[in-house]
Amino acid sequence: MRLPKFDYRQPESIQEACAILLDQPDAKVLAGGTDLLVNMKHRVETPSMIVSLKGLRDLDYVRKANGMVRIGALTRLKKVYNDPFVAKKLPALAAAASSVGSYHHQTMGTLGGNLCQQTRCKYFNQSKWWRSARPLCFKAGGDPCHVAKKDQVCYSTYCGDVAPALLVLNAEVVLSGREGSKQVPLESIFSGVGKTPLNLEPGQILTEIVIPEQSADGFSTYKKIANRGSIDFPIVGAAVWTSASTGESRIALTAVDRKPVRTRQLEDFLKGLELNEETIQGVDGLVAKETQLMMSSIDSISYKRKLMGQLVKSALSEAMGGR
Ligand SMILES: Cc1cc2nc3c(=O)[nH]c(=O)nc-3n(C[C@H](O)[C@H](O)[C@H](O)COP(=O)(O)OP(=O)(O)OC[C@H]3O[C@@H](n4cnc5c(N)ncnc54)[C@H](O)[C@@H]3O)c2cc1C
Ligand code: SF4
Q1: Which residue(s) pair with 63 in the sheet?
Q2: What does each C-alpha distance from 98 to 76, 143, 162, 230, 319 come to in angstroms?
Q3: What are phi and psi of 256, to 5 degrees?
Q4: 20 to 30 A from 303, CA-CA: which of 12, 135, 246, 289?
Q5: What pLDDT digit, counting tens, does each position of 59-72 carry?
Q6: What is the DSSP string of 234-300?
């Protein structure tokens, strides 16, 4: 499959990248390209210009300073999970980054690109020929949504592996635009709108991920089930962080809604409770309550619900021994 035609720019600074993006509203940012270029080959994304971030070499690092772990947005997933501090102290992040696609995706794909990836749908992530059997769906530029059987809505699903791990580690992200940078909670960049899944302003790019070192004090893990274990997006992914000293738990899910979901009602239920077999069995009915599952993937809603319960219970059981 060939790429469509596009103009290519490779700015040397963040300011220059943001200025180009502001001037060319339909331009797309290119990091590792493992998500974007596939979508372009399928003609579901056809930007007139690609703004490659390859010239921004300063955005490739994992470093600790002032109680924070700071990771540049262009850091490859492999470098993230091989970092000694991440591997030892932030196992949820290491497990999530090393579960992305295949080894090749991990050596090419960046942390920023993973967080900012497009939402997915069985009617969208297909070749142009495959899609030609139906009218263009809303996300691809038409009106109907083939999943919801309604016009002008999109229930495509966020399937990134790393976002739930970073959510339970209380990560924030730095967004940079022409006017400067601001640090915001990671959760706030996900819009929950299938057609435009990110809350980035025009000309804005994600430049850094910031994790409080305090998050290394608890137990954390990420668990995923995929159709092809060695290369696939999650059918469901679940990240869990627990602290023995505060009795606090944080739980986040992916591939179950239009954005990664922090399950706050479930966290409230667990607050202060001793983690034992009885408590863990009690979470089963609660896990799926805060998600909005739609038939946008080949896996049934009931199967996904079942997997969600199993993954969270399995992660909590591990926490019971480890926290
Ligand atoms: C076969 C296959 C299997 C895959 N399996 C998985 C999987 O299991 N789990 C998973 O999470 N992903 C998976 N992916 C998707 C992808 O490989 C990863 O998400 C990867 O981490 C994306 O990073 P990238 O740097 O290549 O992103 P790119 O493709 O370069 O960019 C992805 C999107 O983010 C935007 N973007 C990139 N960087 C920034 C930035 N700094 N600021 C703002 N916007 C930005 C781009 O414009 C684009 O829309 C898979 C892809 C394929 C083809
Ligand atoms: S959920 Fe509907 S609009 Fe969105 S990508 Fe799928 S078919 Fe298209």
Answers
A1: 70
A2: 11, 37, 9, 10, 20
A3: -130, 0
A4: 135
A5: 999 999 999 999 99
A6: -SEEEEEEE-TTT--EEEEEESSSSS-EE-HHHHHHHTT---SHHHHHHTHHHHGGG----S-SSS-
* 260-293: pLDDT as tens digits: 999 999 999 999 888 899 999 889 889 989 999 9
Distance 290 CA to ligand 2 centre (A): 21
| Residue 152, phi-psi category: left (phi > 0), alpha (psi -120 to 50), beta (remainder) | left
pTM flag (> 0.85)? yes
Question: What is the token pair recorded at 168?
Answer: 């339970």
What would the two tokens of residue 155 be? 């229930």
Closest atom of ligand 1 relative to the 162 alpha carbon: 11
- The 10s digit of each residue's pLDDT in 169-188 is 999 999 999 889 999 999 99
| Any atom of ligand 1 within 6 Å of the Cβ of 35 | yes
The answer for residues whose C-beta is within 8 angstroms of residue 77's C-beta and 6 or more apart is 97, 98, 100, 105, 106, 107, 109, 110, 111, 114, 162
Structure tokens at 18: 């943001």
Return d(Cα 283, Cα 238) in angstroms, integer: 14
